[in-house]
Amino acid sequence: MRSLFKLLARIERCTSGSALVEMTLVVPLAVALMAGAVDFGMGFSAQATLGKSVRDAARYVAGLPVRSCSNSTTYWANSYAMSLVTNVVPSASPSVTCSACPFDASSNCITATATLTYNSIILTGALPGYFPALGNFNLSARHQEVQIGGP
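User: That's the sequence. What structure does it adopt?
Assistant: Structure tokens below.
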């Protein structure tokens, strides 16, 4: 019995494997945190790119002549403005509308919106097949400009 206590006391004082035990506890946590930070950064970048392309599309249409808000030329302006968004973010679904401004009825306001489904690398890959919608996030952007184009 006494030798058992001596053996346990000797094992308690031994520190030869403590670095390995600490590493097995810390490394998975560090890798998970780094992967989460990369995934968050990719989602943030997608949102910023979507917002910038929507803003560019609205500013382009706002600089066109006022007659571009009529039904005859709206299709051309909208299709070019929507291609400004889809060339940068191919999977986005943009729309551009022209209506009277809520704060000034004599002016036209151009409103560009777009939505994008962002697939998270970490959440989609963690449980494939079990929760397919867990890693999907709907990102959206909206920008409104007063039309400043000439007649």
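The longest strand covers residues 108-119.
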